[in-house]
Amino acid sequence: MTSFRIREAAALLSVSDDTVRRWIDAGQLPADTDASGRLVVQGTDLAAYLTRTATVPGDAGEHASSARNRFVGVVTDIVSDTVMSQVELRSGPHRVVSLMSTEAVRDLGLEVGSLATAIVKATNVIVETPRTERG
Predict the structure, then answer these.
(1) What band does 60 get if pLDDT is binned at 50, 70 and 90?
(2) Contacts by 27-32 with C-beta closer than 8 Å and gap 24+?
(3) Distance (Å, rounded) from C-alpha 34 to C-alpha 39?
(4) How far is CA 82 from CA 26, 45, 55, 103, in A?
(5) pLDDT at position 55, please?
(6) How many CB atoms lie within 10 A of CB 46?
(7) CA nearest 104: which of 89, 84, 119, 120?
(8) Mean predicted lDDT score pLDDT of the chain
């Protein structure tokens, strides 16, 4: 199972290490101790927290890409059959759903609580605004 050290969880949540520790102390975010005695947050617990809050994780930005729409987050759900899978990722208030082969899910080692980045490259983007009356 994926686990995140306090510093890693804080970076994903775009808050300080101290804030994550306060949330843990207040019982808002569960934590465990790893084999080295360090405090860690399980990926599944982080996924549940991201699902119920609107905290925006930061983009690690470690790869060069022409795609500008990157959503770093935590996998919160996977629905698979023998051929295809639906993978849900939460990046702060954003829910991104990807359809991919079940083989790709296995190859990437995706599971609920995994850290992942959804990269969106589209030639057609629709922008909406609220309707206004024109006089």
Answers:
(1) very low
(2) 31/6, 32/3
(3) 6
(4) 42, 27, 34, 9
(5) 41
(6) 27
(7) 84
(8) 85
pLDDT in tens, 83-92: 999 999 998 7
Is 122's pLDDT higher than 90? no
Angle at 68 between CA 65 and CA 44, to 5 degrees: 90
3-state SS class at 89: strand
Taken in order of first residue, the domains within the chain and their CATH numbers are: 3-52 (1.10.1660.10), 69-120 (2.40.50.100)
**Three-state DSSP class for residue 60:** coil
47 within 8 A of 90, measured Cβ to Cβ: yes
Measured between alpha carbons, how far is 86 from 107 in angstroms, rounded to an integer? 15
Distance CA 60, CA 110 (A): 18
Distance separating alpha carbons of residues 45 and 24, to the nearest angstrom: 11
Of 123, 127, 80, which Cα lies nearest the Cα of 104?
80
